Amino acid sequence: MKNFRFKNPTDIRFGTGRLDVELHDAVSHFGSRVLFVYGGHSIKKSGLYDTVKGLLADLQLTELPGIEPNPKIASIREGQKLVKDNDVEVVLAVGGGSVIDAAKVIASAKFYDGDPWDLVKDRGVTRHKLPQLPVVDILTLAATGSEMNSGSVISNPETHEKLGTNGPNTPAVSFLDPTLTYTVPRRQTAAGSMDIFSHLLEQYFDRSKNNDASKGMMEGLMRTVIKWAPIAVKEPDNFDARANLMWSATMALNGVMSVANENGWTVHSLEHELSAYYDITHGVGLGILTPRSMEYALTKDSTTAEMFARFGRHVWDLEGDETYAVAQAAIDETFDWIKALGFPMTLPEVGIADERHFDAMATAAVANAGLETRAYVPLSEEDVKAIYQASMTDGLTA
Question: Which part of the chain is the Fe-containing alcohol dehydrogenase-like C-terminal domain (predicted)?
């Protein structure tokens, strides 16, 4: 393992019944002028909106509703104006990862006089030179881990770009109540579970040597997601399923798992281009691309077989002495598990009927993520295009 430094200052408040007792103090500690950021109608339908408004009735709340999945830069621009015009002191994000992602960029944008797309486009270079409003969040979907990391992913439909940016801070306080995810639809539960699983895979398949501490933690979390995701899909109000998925999501992307890693991510970069051009659900795109990308990596570079076989033995409990066969079986198991969650498993099933954007998407994926140099298995534009093409048809090629 190489040298590393780790710090995460987020105050996690996990469990039921904590909002009534702790939300007001957690928010008002930072000030009385609050930007209340949320998504669609789900928090109003569930009653959470009224709960939050009641608990914070004595504070000055400015609302920013309508944050979309794959949050758009238009919402960030609107939020920037609101935090400046109302001299906001703290941002409260209530929702899933998209809402929290938007809140974090808005929290930086208060202190920037230009277009907030600049703060995304330069991947956070400017944000790290700026102050940041504190962010408090109430999580309603287990998926992205945004509740305990500094990252955000923002889309610009006008330029067909979906880019990640990092800020100077993680959320100050995050409320994680598994019961708030009971009303998440089955399709979103499956997509969120796939996002968690993908976060772990992207960090697990890495060229770092003898990093067994991190690899072992990831294997345990992957087994947890494999076990509990199907239960949450079938039994939406199963507390144990929701709690295990929620904490797995947080742990998967709070920085602990990537300690001592060397490589960048691959499948997320490919999926960001799908979402940029077609605005599909992020987790669904990951579900389609992940097993194809894994198979392509194994076929292109046989030295990956050992790691894929470890994945098969330690995560899927596969047996066998032939390394390559176990490696391929592990990928098959991954495909079958994703499919069993109720996923569409081809791009045409999510409305991508032809390859007209594949060249541009491949070029952007390679350029934005440095896939030719930083990926676990280096990928050219032709490699990326081949993975998109493989995702057009049923099943795996092997």
Answer: 189-392
CA distances from 276 to 69, 73, 122, 157, 160 (A): 12, 12, 17, 7, 5
The pLDDT confidence band at residue 3, using thresholds 50, 70 and 90, is confident
- Number of neighbouring beta carbons within 10 Å of residue 107: 31
Instruction: Specify the amino acid at residue 351.
Output: G
Beta strands in 49-123 (DSSP E): 60-64, 90-95
What is the pairing mode between strands 11-14 and 173-176?
parallel
| Alpha carbon distance 385, 358 (integer Å) | 6
Q: List Cα–Cα distances, 136 to 30, 83, 104, 118, 290, in angstroms.
A: 10, 15, 10, 24, 32
**Cα–Cα dist 342/229, whole Å:** 11
Q: What is the DSSP letter of 128?
A: G
d(CA 303, CA 163): 31
The predicted structure's pLDDT at residue 174:
98
DSSP state of 67: P
Query: What span, in angstroms and rounded, lies between the C-alpha atoms of 151 and 148?
Result: 9
Closest CA to 150 of 139, 135, 129: 135
Instruction: Report pLDDT for 398.
Output: 62
pLDDT, tens digit (0-9, with 9 covering 90-100), for 161-216: 999 999 998 999 999 999 999 999 999 999 999 999 999 999 999 999 899 999 99
Write the CB contacts of 275 (distance below 8 Å, at least 6 apart in sequence): 70, 155, 162, 282, 285
pTM for the model: 0.96
DSSP 72: B
Which letter does DSSP use for residue 257 in this model? T
Residue 153 to residues 1, 163, 270, 316: CA-CA distances in angstroms? Answer: 29, 5, 14, 31
pLDDT tens by residue, 207-257: 998 999 999 999 999 999 999 999 999 999 999 999 999 999 999 999 999
